[in-house]
Amino acid sequence: MAHTLCLLRHARPLIESGVCYGHLDVSAEVNANAQDAQTILDRMSARGVTPDMIYTSDLQRARQLTDAIHSHFLQTPLIADPRLREMNFGCWEGHAWNDIPKAEYDSWIENFPDYQFGGMESCQQVLTRVIDFYRDMRATLEVNTQATQHSQQILCVTHAGVMRALRYYLETGNETISSASQWPATVAGFGCSETYMLE
């Protein structure tokens, strides 16, 4: 039985362009959030889609989009999971990317899996927590499938780094990463989604 997993990136955040933010809990632009929510709701309506489960990062820029969507599906279970947060950039949170020393970027690229850019979290740690979330989500999915006997529609509202990590895992099956060249280079824009069919 095939299930649908839709990964939706939060709306454009209310922060100056070029600033590093990951765990930094910034809000989304109000108008962008409303517009993105309406767009995704219109698409779901056109396809006759009602989510069976909604997961979200607990950071407010994700919760704002989630809440706008969930208000139309109040019977759908909603779970806020910190494992869906963006990567923690530690001491560089809130700093302009251009102000971060080149040596910091070089160290990150040279030891991409394990270097904690900003001193808090490595890409491997992000990948591991995202895989942990995915496995728990799949376990819940199996229970729901047995109970309902129909395909499930899962919506996750999250961040670019999480979307890259999950894409890497789903496309390769690898639980570890060894170099920056393996990390997906592109990701959906603000308020846009990526969809996967799960067997």
From TrEMBL:
Gene3D superfamilies: Phosphoglycerate mutase-like. Pfam families: His_Phos_1. This is Histidine phosphatase family protein. The keyword Hydrolase applies. InterPro entries: His_Pase_superF_clade-1 (IPR013078), His_PPase_superfam (IPR029033), Phosphoglycerate_Mutase (IPR051695). Keywords: Hydrolase. Signal peptide: none annotated. It comes from Undibacterium seohonense.
